[in-house]
Amino acid sequence: MRIASMSSITRTAALTGLVGAIAIAMAGCGSASTSANAPTVTNSAIQTNSQGQTVSTPSSGSGSTPPSTSTGSGTSASTGALTISTGQVAGLGSVLVTSTGRTIYMFVPDHQSKVTCVASCAALWPPVLLGSGQTAVGTGGVKTSLLGSDPNPGGGRVVTYNKWPLYTFASDTSAGTATGQALNLNGGLWYVLSPSGALITRAG
Known about the structure:
By secondary structure, the protein is of the alpha+beta class. It has helices spanning 6-37, 120-124, and strands spanning 44-48, 54-58, 68-69, 81-89, 93-98, 105-107, 129-130, 135-138, 147-151, 157-161, 164-165, 184-185, 188-193, 199-200. It has a domain at 81-200. The chain has two helices and 14 strands. Strands 6, 12, 13 and 14 form a four-stranded antiparallel β-sheet that branches.
């Protein structure tokens, strides 16, 4: 039997080691290529809140990006305000009016304490009502400090001025008219109010 020389054995071992090194290098290149082509995953999740809005929320541990909410409208909800202003009525001067110019009246039997014009009376003399969440504001010389509201027996709240509940008159068909002035109707007298809160009792 022929015994291989030491130099032959050494060359064989060297070749074996070289082949193994090449195989390892190729495997590493394939792994790097796979990682480079893999999609990037961000640390956020898309959720839907209770109002049906889309919210992008960072995953736990990121702590750097606040949630962003899309409303779709670009405006915020507002309950707004009910405006009481002043207008000129011939023979009466400056009186309280609604935002549409309708003349405002007070009812003597209310005695600056509560709303007493209800049912058929309120159908002829509609009270100036606040909407849900509304507040009354004054313009044109009206003193906001004199504005308030009283409970309405028919529901909601009626705007008051100097503690008088406020009403309009169904027969006033346009701004600048006060056909209800000084009428004794539905159980009492009706008068317009000046911006100071005083009654104007003269006929128009």
